[in-house]
Amino acid sequence: MYNITRLINKGMFSLVFEAKKIGKESDEKSYAFKRIFFCSRYAPFCALREKEILQSLRKNVDSPFLPKFYHSFLVHGNPVIVTELLSGRSLQDVKLNFGLLSEETARFYIAEILCALVKLHSLYIVHLDLKPENVILRNSGHIVLSDFDRAFNMHLNTDKGMISGKNFAGTARFMAPEVATKKTITTQADVWSLGIMTAELITGSVRPISNSKQRRIEMAQMGEYSISNRDELSLALRIFLDACLTYDYALRSNANALKKFEFFKNLNWEDVEMLRLPPPYQPTQLEFKPKINVDPSDPNVLALALAAEIPEDQVEIHKDLAAISQTALDSFGYTRDKLNQMFENFEYEHSSSTSLDLHNQEGPSIQSESENQN
């Protein structure tokens, strides 16, 4: 059972809550309880993709820079994913609070991100949406790569060597040219995104801000960027950025090779992996502005973790996450029978946890849907 204690954040298709186990399986840990709503044609696909990737990571790698996955199940036909709880503060919050980073400070974060990418790419998984908002801080200040709902498994998600259009995803500002042009997806796509992110953390925006989605895509397709005050950067950093931002993905460096660059010359990679280096900032130093203006402990808000749908009186949440009609889902090929088939094997339970029961702070506990059917 879980006790839902507060709302942490809102995603594109989801609400994320803090939850604690109660009952015979209770422990001292808090968890991130992500309730996904079918408010978009992309939500079912993204939920399945995230669960698939998280389960693969849990089975195959052990890294402090990748999230730990515990449970997945359905509530009223909608997915829930339970992972370890992090601070809720991101590298974007570091940037917003402290401005541009020094090369030394940025090197700490980029090194930890590289360690995450090396592990990820060893499984032929491409994140595809690497950006400061998706680099979350632990309470200790070390990073965890998050948000795998757009990630791509190069082994599982190809059909006779072809990649379907829906797999080409990400944020245009950080997107590699070959992804923006829907040419191919390789692990080098994340290296491009890492280069753009590094440049932005140290020098500011490298692409003109545009309100036109088409213009943003065009800039990504052309590999268009401009680094301010490039000549003031160290030679080692310029070489690193050039290696990341090589237009031809076949000539672009890979994550493991980047660790050997001069920019990281004085870094002990074992110290990085073992979390021995002191983080530049702690999450408690960061002011945080929630994405939605609601009381995170309001019982009516907490009830949304288990609700069949979001009521209209929850205006701040309803306007973004209200479920689209089944008729609309049908038009996208997601009939109720199709959804049932897609999510037939969605439930997952990590071996160290045995309970899939939920508990609302104010209401009765409920069971996962497959248990209710037995």
Automatic annotation (TrEMBL):
<dbReference type="InterPro" id="IPR000961">
    <property type="entry name" value="AGC-kinase_C"/>
</dbReference>
<keyword id="KW-0547">Nucleotide-binding</keyword>
<dbReference type="InterPro" id="IPR000719">
    <property type="entry name" value="Prot_kinase_dom"/>
</dbReference>
<keyword id="KW-0418">Kinase</keyword>
<keyword id="KW-0723">Serine/threonine-protein kinase</keyword>
<dbReference type="GO" id="GO:0004674">
    <property type="term" value="F:protein serine/threonine kinase activity"/>
</dbReference>
<dbReference type="Pfam" id="PF00069">
    <property type="entry name" value="Pkinase"/>
</dbReference>
<dbReference type="InterPro" id="IPR008271">
    <property type="entry name" value="Ser/Thr_kinase_AS"/>
</dbReference>
<keyword id="KW-0808">Transferase</keyword>
<feature type="region of interest" description="Disordered">
    <location>
        <begin position="353"/>
        <end position="374"/>
    </location>
</feature>
<dbReference type="InterPro" id="IPR011009">
    <property type="entry name" value="Kinase-like_dom_sf"/>
</dbReference>
<protein>
    <submittedName>
        <fullName>Protein kinase domain-containing protein</fullName>
    </submittedName>
</protein>
<feature type="domain" description="Protein kinase">
    <location>
        <begin position="2"/>
        <end position="264"/>
    </location>
</feature>
<dbReference type="GO" id="GO:0005524">
    <property type="term" value="F:ATP binding"/>
</dbReference>
<keyword id="KW-0067">ATP-binding</keyword>
<feature type="domain" description="AGC-kinase C-terminal">
    <location>
        <begin position="265"/>
        <end position="358"/>
    </location>
</feature>
